[in-house]
Amino acid sequence: MDQLQSLLEGEWLTEGQTLPQILVKTAAVLEQGWTSQAQARNAYGERVHPSDETAVMFSIEGAVARASNDIGFVPPPVLRILDQEVLNYLGLTRLIYDEDNNVTDTREPAVAGIMEERDVAWFNDNYTYEEILKFFDYVISRSQ
Predict the structure, then answer these.
(1) CA 51 to CA 44: how far, in whole Å?
(2) Cα–Cα distance, 69 to 78 (Å, whole number)
(3) Residue 132: enclosing H or E segment and its boundaries?
(4) Distance CA 55, CA 49 (A)
(5) What's the whole-number mean pLDDT along residues 22-48?
(6) Other beta carbons within 10 Å of 2
(7) How would DSSP label each residue in 59-86?
(8) Three-class secondary structure of residue 19 per DSSP
(9) What is the rounded average pLDDT for all residues in the chain?
(10) 40 near 32, Cβ under 8 Å?
(11) Rounded distance, CA 136 to CA 48, Å?
């Protein structure tokens, strides 16, 4: 994960936070309230922007946006990392780093056709709240 952390260097949408800091804050946001099929919802269940002060429930992407910056946008490097971690968590791929620290993922032929569908938004909308929290425990432990 150290190599992945370097993706955040200079990323203004993270406001200088490290990946572990963003992940811990994201997990805390999710523990306050979780939703699916929207980045954020208010107390009435209506869709709102993650930065909206009335937002009380968040998807993974919405929680990342809320935890990362004041404007409520998901930093692309964090999303890329979480997309990869979903695949790792589900056992669909493993990361290999070359001598230049470039990430190469190795995919099993039997699952290669479903890789593009298995991102963090898909995971959020197809797994339970309890599984989402377990996923964050996994990702946080790998980031430290």
Answers:
(1) 16
(2) 12
(3) helix 129-143
(4) 7
(5) 97
(6) 9
(7) -HHHHHHHHH-TT----HHHHHHHHHHH
(8) helix
(9) 82
(10) no
(11) 23
How far apart are the two ends of the chain, measured CA to CA in Å? 8
pLDDT confidence of residue 4: 46
CB of 23 closer than 8 Å to CB of 139: yes
122 burial type by CB count under 10 A (0-12 exposed, 13-18 middle, 19+ buried): middle
pLDDT one-digit tens code per residue, 103-139: 555 554 334 444 556 789 999 999 999 999 999 999 9
**Cα 92-93-99 angle, rounded to 5 deg:** 180
Contact indicator for 140, 24 with CB cutoff of 8 Å? yes
Q: Model pTM?
A: 0.79
| Dist. CA 42–CA 143, nearest whole Å | 31
Q: Residue 8 and residue 75: Cα distance in Å, rounded?
A: 9
pLDDT in tens, 37-59: 999 999 999 999 999 999 999 99
